[in-house]
Specification:
Layout lengths: L6 E5 L3 H13 L3 E5 L2 H9 L5 E5 L6 H12 L5 E6 L3 H9 L4 E5 L3 H16 L9 E3 L2 E4 L4 E4 L2 E3 L3 H11 L5 E3 H9 L7 H15 L9 E4 L3 E4 L2 H9 L61
Parallel strand pairs: 1-2, 1-3, 3-4, 4-5
Antiparallel strand pairs: 6-7, 7-8, 8-9, 10-12, 11-12
Helix pairs in contact: 2-3, 6-7, 6-8
């Protein structure tokens, strides 16, 4: 399907938002239908024919979260982007856990929104990747079978947990993975609240895979929500813009949607202590003293 054929359903009770979104989307070749309530969205979607949904979280009636839940019951692969307001981190996390593909925070730029729409649609239309197939983004290549990572053809030595974190993120490239989901998949459900512990590992991981860890191109932070590994197009675009991180503030002249001022992006906890660099040897199991959970070493196999 070509870009001009993409059909978008906008679901937002604010008429100002719908009026602001329709003209630029139509001008870019998208086909746009808009409704003001979740109940209308469900009826419209059941008729089929849409490629992506822009769904407001806070609406009268059944609301955005319940609408998302019901859409996922009959359209599990339909790309859904949540429209949220600042300081709504819990709602963002809940939406992502329920199957939303992404979110944008009001007021957002059209450039940001278009990029998120195209990324979501491209991901759904891409052919399915075999679970054991290598994953390549930019100059990084991860082999899940051999559990090896290479950058520019050179082996990157990772600890077992660093590899698990990287695989979890790269296998979902372009999508946000919440802190809780990442912690659960790597350490188990009992560690899902240990965000500071995760941040320490991510800082170490960035030191190994990024050219400039202070301006990451691969492993990006969605503040208060989780992490996102750039997909190939995101990486190429960021690299072409002079290695400017996609998480940095946007240019001041870019038009924004109406409502409150945009939340400034925060750096990821600058003062957190880093774990000491541990000696590593390629292709060997980790040393018994490496901490696998926040409170106790992992039991030997």
């Amino acid at each position: 399907m070509t870009q001009t054929a993409i059909r978008i359903l906008i679901v937002d009770d604010e008429s100002a938002i719908r009026r602001a979104l329709r003209p630029p989307l139509v001008e870019l070749g998208f086909q746009v239908v808009d409704v003001s309530r979740g109940e209308e969205a469900l009826q419209t979607l059941r008729a089929g024919g849409f490629d992506v949904v822009l769904l407001d979280v806070n609406m009268p009636g059944i609301g955005g979260i319940e609408t998302l839940r019901r859409i996922r019951a009959f359209a599990p692969r339909l790309p859904i982007l949540m429209l949220t307001v600042r300081d709504a981190e819990e709602e963002k996390v809940e939406a992502l856990e329920l199957g939303a593909d992404d979110y944008v925070t009001k007021p957002f730029s059209m450039r940001e929104l278009i990029a998120r729409i195209r990324t979501a649609v491209r991901r759904v239309q891409a052919p399915a990747r075999a679970e054991d197939a290598p994953i390549e983004v930019g100059e990084l290549r991860l082999d899940p079978v051999k559990r090896k990572v290479a950058k520019r053809g050179q082996l990157v030595h990772l600890t077992r947990k660093e590899f698990d974190i990287l695989y979890c993120l790269m296998s979902r490239a372009g999508r946000v993975v919440t802190y809780a989901r990442l912690l659960t998949e790597v350490w188990g459900a009992e560690c899902r609240e240990e965000v500071e512990y995760l941040r320490t590992f991510v800082r170490q991981l960035r030191m190994k895979i990024e050219d400039d860890p202070s301006k990451p191109l691969y492993l990006l932070t969605d503040v208060y929500v989780g992490y996102r590994f750039a997909d190939a197009q995101m990486f190429n675009e960021a690299n072409a813009e002079g290695a400017t991180s996609p998480n940095e503030p946007e240019t001041p002249n870019e038009p924004k949607t109406p409502n409150e001022p945009k939340t400034p992006n925060e750096p990821e906890t600058p003062n957190e202590p880093e774990t000491p660099n541990e000696p590593e040897t390629p292709n060997e199991p980790e040393t018994p003293n490496e901490s696998e959970t926040p409170n106790e070493p992992e039991a030997a196999s």
